[in-house]
Amino acid sequence: MPQRSSNKVKVYVRTRPTNNFALSMLSFGQDNRTICIHRIASANAVDNKINDWAFHLDGVFHNVSQEETFDSVGKDVVDRTLEGYNGTIMCYGQTGAGKTHTMTGFAESYQNRGIIPRALQHLYQEINARQDFSYSIRIAYLEIYNDQMCDLLRTLNSPSDYQQQQLSIGEDSGFVYVKGLSYRIANSEEEALNLLFEGETNRTIGQHILNKQSSRSHCIFTILVECRSILSSDDKYTVSKINLVDLAGSERLAKTNSEGVTKREATFINKSLSFLEQVVLNLSDKKTNYSHFRSSKLTHVLKDSIGGRCNTVMIANIWPELQHMEETVSTLRFASRMMCVPAEPTVNAVIDPVKAIENYKRENKYLKEELALHNTLVNRSGISYEPLSEQQLYEIENQCRRFIDGNLDEFEIQNVRQVQERTNSSCAMMFKNTLAHRT
């Protein structure tokens, strides 16, 4: 397995509550960071399968509330985003393991609200407390269904509306964006929550044997944060984003009894998650220089959200029952690989061109005033630093001609502008003379 970097993606595991916990096969370490799995081998069986696993993670959430989960995972990501760092919180796991519950929770239960509504609440609380900064918040909600992208914040009245959306993925200086995706301004927590509920209404939901309300698509709720200092006249500001990712559940078709449309959906889901696993495997391997981000819409959209310059956290959701142990091991293996992905979050500083020009003009004015004061002190108050007039340019050209012809011994230099102009004129004349002699 690749060696884990000191700066890496953080990975936590959350268990789905169940009355049929596989006590004989699954246990937790006392450090609350280790999961041990023991597979009972069949009698007289001879094979090369591993029977015991020990997965070491950044934390295990077992019988943990929504509030505790967010406090452990989400608060730091939100706080650092307000400071200019990109952040990602991603839920991964099999169908029915509790990903959507962890990410969004239940709209009808305030206590059981998930990471997204809690992140919005914490975000606006922090903004209101930071009086020295001005913040602009915009929100987007993207769905990837059967490898097609859909803007969930646009009105969708029929399947044709879904297909007619012209969304494509672009890149600029290492940053990924979706062309055509709408970003809606949210000036308050209430406005932001309304956008979340609007997007949830448009989300694709399906039903099968493991989950009556199964998410049949990958969804990315993006909070774009622009921060400017009120006290400073600096031309720099920060633009950062939080991607809150609810991945569709991986599933084994034989176990879910999927047919028809649901089977086709599952095929696309499993395929995109397979590409995601390949990308993570490549990112965690220092010897591999290429990652297959463009293999699917999901991996391409998440290109700047998995490690690298992004503060990335993954929650691996597992269903700790005996019948789901194979999927649990698969999820924990992926979690272990994700922990090896290096992450070096950096501040996304942007220069405001309008403010930069204003600052340059102000600095130029101060320098001119300082230079004028200096000239006055050394009895050079008559010198001008304004652009040269036509008459002055003519005199400089005349002096250059006389100097080249040997009729003038030296130039009278008053400022750098004259030096530049005389140098240009002299070079031009010498070039013309050289051409004249050659012809």
Automatic annotation (TrEMBL):
Molecular function, one GO term: ATP binding
Localization per record: Cytoplasm, Cytoskeleton
Domain Kinesin motor: 8-341
Gene3D superfamilies, per the entry: Kinesin motor domain
A family per Pfam: Kinesin
GO biological process, any: microtubule-based movement
SUPFAM superfamilies (alphabetical): P-loop containing nucleoside triphosphate hydrolases (SSF52540)
Gene Ontology CC terms, in alphabetical order: microtubule
Keywords annotated in UniProt: ATP-binding, Coiled coil, Cytoplasm, Cytoskeleton, Microtubule, Motor protein, Nucleotide-binding, Phosphoprotein
SMART domains given in the database record: KISc
Chain positions recorded as ATP binding sites: 93-100
Record's keyword annotation contains Nucleotide-binding: yes
Source taxon at top rank: Eukaryota
Primary localization class, coarse: cytoplasm
Family: Belongs to the TRAFAC class myosin-kinesin ATPase superfamily. Kinesin family.
Descriptive protein name: Kinesin-like protein
